[in-house]
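Sequence in, structure out.
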Amino acid sequence: MLFGSWLINLYLSIAVFIIVFLGALGNNLIITTSFRATVAFLITYLSTYFFRWLWAFSLAPPQSKETEEDLFLPGNDIKEEYPIENRDYSEEEIMKAGNYVRELLDDKEV
């Protein structure tokens, strides 16, 4: 959501156009002056959208920040795909996993 309306962009850009046009008119041809004023108008018009977005973002109320503990308390209706309680490994599986990790670490060059 942006702060204000597109009319803010238009009014500000027209003001910049007039300032640039009048400032450059004394030193340049009318074509060069018009081109520079038009470029200033377009840059101002488009960049004002960004600044309006920043303004709205800074004025927005902060979102609620939940901690991990709040998310995993009972009754929050969060489904766990792999609950820790159901992981029953045999001694043989634990030894295989440990040996596999040791092999990986031994082969790794530092």
